[in-house]
Amino acid sequence: MKATSATPSTSAPVAHNALPPPSATSNARSSRIAPHSHIKGLGLTSDGLAAPDGAGFIGQTNAREACGVAVDLVKSRKFSGRALLLVGAPGTGKTALALAVSHELGTKVPFCPMVGSEVYSTEVKKTEVLAESFRRAIGLRIKETKEVYEGEVTELTPAESENPLSGYGKTVSHVIVGLKTVKGTKQLRLDPTIYEAILKEKIVVGDVIYVEANTGAVKRVGRSDAYASSYDLESETYVPLPKGDVHKRKELVQDVTLGDLDAANARPQGGQDIMSVMGSLVKSGRTEVTDKLRREVNKVVKGYVDQGVAEVVPGVVFIDEVHMLDIECFTYLNALLESPMAPTVILATNRGNALVRGTTDIVSPHGVPVDLLDRCLIVKTDGYNREQIGKVVQLRANVEGLKLGSGVLERIAEEGERGSMRYALQLLTPASILAGLSGRSQIEVEDIGEMNELFLDAKTSATNIGADGGFDGGKMW
Ligand SMILES: Nc1ncnc2c1ncn2[C@@H]1O[C@H](COP(=O)(O)OP(=O)(O)O)[C@@H](O)[C@H]1O
Ligand SMILES: [Mg+2]
Fold first, then answer.
1. Predicted model pTM
2. What is the Cα–Cα distance from 330 to 127, expressed in whole angstroms?
3. What DSSP letter does each residue of 272-333 carry, written as one string?
4. How much of the chain is in helix, strand and coil states, percent to nearest 5?
């Protein structure tokens, strides 16, 4: 999947399979979600039944209905102190289900995915990593009314003047910005520091922006829809021309998470002297947020919530490969689940009976200690048949903009049935590259055939290994 997100301009003929460039807000974490971009929700009817395919989800009806019940429980606040555990073979849609649950809970709900093994760090305590994830999954929606200038940029001219200090160079003395709304236009004369902010936000004529009147902070809302183009896939967000006057009071909504607040307060920017500057350079690695700091942050947040300025939005923590956690983490997880401000917790694993990490003799189902299992609502995901794999492959091909020749879908589905759903989906990108190499814009059956000569699926590879565990009976060399 990674190769497809490269800049389209570098690979001219095959660029049609390029995903839209990641938006500015996406970070390393969102790339883990990209293979699930076709999943829009659980696809349940109003009475909680799963249609055979809905919201990008194919089959897996029992698990989807079960997750729907969990969503209802969360919404009616009856899920606290519990967790949802998804169990099933690799590639059966556990991650996809977790993502769908978070979609069902609301659009701006924070989703914080992590993998069990992420807790093992030499710098930060295991429990601290868990605690941080939980904090990052609790959103805070802050509403403020501010005086702003808002509109579509019609003009952006920096005015230059002789630099009084250096004699030769020129500096920007002020910048003229024209803003347009449905009701009128206004020309603003702004300070050069605001011009820097404008450059940083990459604002050009035709963008809708607002400037906060008393801080001068500039924010780009999106591109005016008068400039909307007819591309099918685009990363740009188009917004209508703002209504009302240019200069007005506007309710601004900001979404942050408790984790953001903790981090911002753990590394305060204060201090002008050289020592504090040096100190902040050295401490820029990961440092722990203390419990005391969290309590302070909680107190401030509670104040805001009581005043009605902010609203708490509990999100979802998703811990994949949960069997990788050890016994210390599990007991801590129990405690976190009971804390008053806990997000919805979804765990996933593909293990059967396994040793609980960190113990020598406790074997437990899914490698999860029974006291935590006891708090879990366990949902099992099933394997897929050929038809269902075919449908998902078609969905992904549409999302990635790939054209499939006749018989290709059946062939990939067949491979998927032999290997796994994930193997089938992973065939798509290399096959499209092969097709591109032979100058076709469409994947044909022969590309898939060639793929099979080049690569092995997990099961084939496993059967190739001889009885004594070596390739070719250990006679490789
Ligand atoms: N029922 C389904 N409908 C649509 N896509 C699915 C379905 N099940 C799995 N997928 C897709 O198959 C791929 C593998 O699924 P994933 O959720 O990562 O499996 P797991 O986490 O169980 O190993 C993902 O791209 C996922 O979006
Ligand atoms: Mg997964």
1. 0.73
2. 9
3. -SHHHHHHHHHTTS--PPPHHHHHHHHHHHHHHHHHTSEEEEE-EEEEESGGGSBHHHHHHH
4. 40, 25, 35
Instruction: Pick the ligand that lies closest to the CA of residue 38.
Output: 1
Query: Where residue 424 sits, what CATH number does that domain have?
Result: 1.10.8.60
Measured in Å, residue 349 CA sits from the centre of ligand 2 at: 8
CA–CA dist 60, 384 (Å, integer)? 8
pLDDT at residue 467, rounded to an integer: 66
pLDDT in tens, 278-307: 555 555 444 567 778 888 888 888 888 898
Q: Which atom of ligand 1 is nearest to the CA of 36?
A: 27
What CATH number should be reported for the domain holding residue 332?
A: 3.40.50.300
- Of the candidates 326, 360, 380, which is a domain's last residue? 380
Tell me the pLDDT band of 350, cut-offs 50, 70 and 90: very high
Q: 90 in ligand 1 pocket by Cβ < 6 Å?
A: yes
Q: Which residues pair with 223 in a beta bridge?
A: 207, 238
What confidence tens digit (pLDDT) does each residue in 103-151 have? 999 888 899 999 999 999 888 888 888 998 999 999 988 888 888 888 9
224 neighbors 238 (Cβ within 8 angstroms): yes
Instruction: Report the nearest atom of ligand 1 relative to the CA of 86.
Output: 22
Question: Mutate which of 400, 422, 429 to test ligand 1's pocket (most atoms within 8 Å of Cβ)?
Answer: 422
Domain boundary among 206, 234, 255: 255
Number of domains in the chain: 3
For residue 381, give the ligand 1 atom closest to its CA: 22
Same domain, yes or no, for 432 and 448? Answer: yes
Residue 409 in contact with ligand 1 by CB distance below 6 A: no
With respect to residue 15, please indicate whether it lies within any of the assigned structural domains.
no
